Amino acid sequence: MSGTVDKSSEPEHANPEKDDPMSLAFAEARAAAARGEVPVGAVIVRDGVVLAQAGNRTLADKDPTAHAELLAIRAACRVLGSERLVDCDLYVTLEPCAMCAAAISFGRLRRLYWAASDPKGGAVEHGPRLFSLPTCHHRPETYGGLRESEAAELLRSFFATRR
Description:
- There is one protein chain.
- By secondary structure, the protein is α/β, with parallel strands linked by helices.
- The chain contains six helices and five strands; from the N terminus they run H-H-E-E-H-H-E-H-E-E-H.
- The longest helix is centred in the N-terminal third of the chain and has 14 residues, at 21-34.
- The protein starts with 15 loop residues before the first helix and ends with a helix.
């Protein structure tokens, strides 16, 4: 699979909401919530082309590593036929945890965009601040707080139904 998309059959006026990577990540997060999973979604894009998208599947897969970011990273690597995601950007609805931040670094993603910060489990702005450690070999550009209130509300609503 080449990872390119033939846009010749698309309408002249594309739907920006549909094409926005963060909107796609939110759609994945909502789908995860509908499955009873913590509502986190992730999308990987290169040159404006969506390579992969995923929502959390830890319960469904019975796998503690089945976070949205890792699933999207694995899928994008398969699409590109490489263990490196150079020139790729990751959009995720929640600040990545230490496991996901390490995978982002190992995968050499160019940029990381996230919606809600995670003071308890995050590892970019919070906790270990993985990309700031001297042992971190690759540091993506990071941008947090995109549509933060929307992501926070999605998480609040999900957990309120479980208490």
